[in-house]
Amino acid sequence: MTINSIATIDQGEGQSLSVAGNSYRILISGEQTGGNYAVIDMLVPPGGGPGPHAHKDMQEMFYVVEGEIEFKMEGGGYRAQKGSLINIPLGGAVHSFKNTTDQIAHLLCTVVPAGLDSFFKEIGKPVEAGVFLPPPSLSAEELEKLKALAQKYGQTLYPPDYLG
Q: Cupin type-2 domain location, by residue (predicted)?
């Protein structure tokens, strides 16, 4: 609900999507902020997380609410635990993350400017909050379509082994 341009989002509100086996809830979309930013609540199951990618014109910040995530970036890695913040500045640094534990990891992601939320809406499948669907198995043709769609939203996708 919006009150005098102040948005309030209750638990369970926001669009929930299954994206590559993860469960993402868009709390604030770019449509609501004039494209200035978006906030996404992310639940990442064991083994989940995106492959290496970069977005040179978007800053991305992750706050670990619960659990832990193994971040990989050019130049090394970082085990982010509850209370950690990861800031990926403008410029296109290649990064990825994976939940290497046996517990669900809970992240809060803010992107400036918005756009990642629109990408997720286009590739994700609507689900109930907290529902996980298995990651899709993509053919070579489907992978090329995904790469083209990622580029539409300012992202570059890299091979799974790009960061070692």
A: 42-110
Q: Where are the domains of the chain?
A: 14-127+136-157
Separation CA 111–CA 130 (nearest Å): 21
| Exposure class string for 123-142: b at 16+ Cβ within 10 A, else e | bbeebebeeeeeeeeeeeee
Q: How far apart are CA 113 and CA 111, in angstroms?
A: 6
Q: Could you give the angle at which helices 140-152 and 116-123 cross, rounded to 10 degrees?
A: 150
Any idea which fold 14-127+136-157 has?
Jelly Rolls (2.60.120)
Asked whether residue 3 carries a pLDDT value surpassing 60, the answer given is no
Mean pLDDT of 104-118: 96
Q: Are 77 and 61 in contact (CB under 8 A)?
A: no
Asked whether the predicted pLDDT for residue 2 surpasses 80, the reply is no
Per the CB < 8 A criterion, the answer to whether 82 and 104 are in contact is no
SS3 41: strand
| Spatial distance between the Cα atoms of 72 and 79, rounded to a whole number of angstroms | 9
